[in-house]
Design goal:
By secondary structure, the protein is an alpha+beta fold. 17% of the residues lie in helices and 35% in strands. The protein is built from five helices and 34 strands. The longest helix is centred in the first third of the chain and has 27 residues, at 3-29.
């Protein structure tokens, strides 16, 4: 049994023994004291016992500071995407695993599963995840439908007409929006259970941590546009029905995300405080490499936003409107810029890269370069693109995160024109923060970023996922 669960079991047993001993002593006192005095004795004793147990719990320091899951990159959908692998049901003495698409905007978790109210052993079909239904009469149903729902005009109104055999209650259909296609469908709200490994930021422990969210079950047809073997959406937004809302003390509300740039090794997501350590520099806490800027909350969105004051390329600033807001996205593959900002960036970038032979543009990009000399591919190096943020902070976008190799002969500036009226004006896509360590600190409402880890001779794929029993 994992250490954390064993500790909880032993502690519960000890509390039970203490209570039995306490009540046996109280029985003797019945013969010695009046009823009023006895009542006072009981009250004082129970208060002392509760205080003692709270002190014992407060004194306990868990061996972990965070929970950890691997992050995988997928290129078999219409655009590059990223997933986390999480344990779900415990079947035949082992956990089932599922891959969830990372979504920083989604208001709640939804994935492939079915509802089953009578979950006795063997009642769930093989290789199927069964979860308990939420009723349409419960407050969670009303909240998710009205306040913490997907906002999409293509979604149909939900009703309370559905149920499951022999249950006797109405289920709770909720609208879900596919983050790849934008299409709307319906899923059924449930009571779920997700399990992850604990970590000290350097190693993965065998000890487990359970979360019990209200998620939603969707049919397998909802995931046809998803990468292979990805059958869910992991909501990491600020919504009270997203995953962070179900992870409690001693974990702090801090999401650390490091997207891998290749398919051969996973990146990492940690939830909780640091330290954060990557090989080969396991003695270096990645937090020491981070700069920070405030997170901005926008109405009608559960996503994460920052202010961008200007964009600088080789000491020249591209003017952008005051209070320009940038959204951080895990489903947009490349940074999109409103047309007025995009044109200024492309003009400046073209000017500082005139030594590199141009190539015909390849959609969706507008500026491309020839990377072949006499039939041999050559690497190119370009100036950083610096996003100047609030309080004078700078997020440097290096060559690895600004130039996308399309073919052996052609590479392009990996920024996309999003149109003249797009809002927000800037959406920072995943290519721009692959192999960057980013931290969404919901405790202090700040966004931390490292710029490219490649300059530190490490990458997001360098976390040590070897299981250990802990310190």
């Amino acid at each position: 049994m994992p250490k954390i669960k064993e500790y909880q079991r032993q502690k519960a047993l000890q509390i039970y023994i203490n209570l039995l001993d306490a009540f046996s002593k109280l029985q003797l006192r019945i013969y010695k004291h009046s009823k009023m005095f006895l009542l006072m004795q009981i009250i004082f004793f129970l208060l002392a016992l509760i205080s003692h147990e709270h002190e014992a719990i407060a004194a306990f320091v868990p061996p972990y500071s965070s929970v950890v899951v691997p992050v995988n990159k997928h290129i078999d959908a219409v655009k590059p995407l990223y997933s986390v692998q999480i344990m779900t049901a415990f079947v035949n003495q082992q956990y089932m695993h599922a891959n969830f698409l990372i979504d920083l905007d989604a208001p709640f978790i939804w994935h492939e599963c079915i509802l089953q109210w009578n979950t006795f052993p063997g009642s769930c079909p093989n290789d199927t995840l069964c979860t308990y239904p939420a009723s349409c009469e419960e407050y969670q149903c009303t909240e998710v439908r009205t306040t913490y729902s997907y906002q999409n005009p293509s979604c149909s109104p939900v009703t309370n007409d559905s149920t499951i055999p022999d249950w006797g209650y109405c289920t709770c259909p909720v609208n879900v929006v596919n983050p790849i296609t934008g299409s709307c469908s319906q899923a059924l709200l449930n009571y779920d259970e997700l399990t992850v490994n604990t970590s000290n930021g350097r190693n993965v422990f065998t000890g487990l941590y359970g979360a019990y969210p209200n998620a939603a079950c969707a049919p397998s047809s909802s995931f046809q546009s998803f990468p292979a073997n990805v059958t869910g959406v992991m909501a990491l937004s600020s919504s009270p029905y997203a995953l962070p809302a179900y992870l409690y003390d001693p974990l702090k509300r801090i999401i650390a995300l490091c997207l891998p740039s290749n398919l051969s090794a996973p990146g990492i997501m940690l939830y909780g405080t640091g330290p954060y350590n990557l090989l080969p520099h396991s003695n270096v806490d990645i937090r020491s490499l981070l700069s920070h800027t405030p997170l901005i909350k926008l109405p009608d969105s559960f996503g994460y936003f920052i202010n961008v004051n200007s964009i600088v390329i080789k000491t020249r600033s591209i003017d952008i409107p005051m209070n320009t807001t940038a959204k951080i996205s895990t489903v947009e593959p490349y940074t999109t810029l409103r047309t007025d900002i995009y044109n200024g960036v492309v003009r400046r970038f073209f000017k500082v890269t005139q030594r590199i032979p141009p190539a015909k543009a390849v959609a969706p990009f507008g500026l491309c370069f020839n990377t072949s000399t006499n039939g041999t591919q050559v690497s190119i190096k370009v100036p950083d693109i610096d996003f100047m943020l609030q309080d004078g902070m700078k997020w440097a976008i290096s060559t690895a995160n600004s130039i996308k190799q399309i073919t052996k002969d052609v590479a392009c500036l990996a920024f996309v024109d999003s149109g003249a009226t797009s809002e927000p004006a800037i959406v920072i896509g995943t290519f721009q923060f692959e192999d960057n360590f980013v931290v969404f600190d919901l405790e202090n409402s700040t966004f931390g970023f490292s710029s490219s880890l490649l300059r530190q001779q490490t990458s997001c794929s360098n976390f040590n996922f070897t299981l250990t029993d802990g310190p």
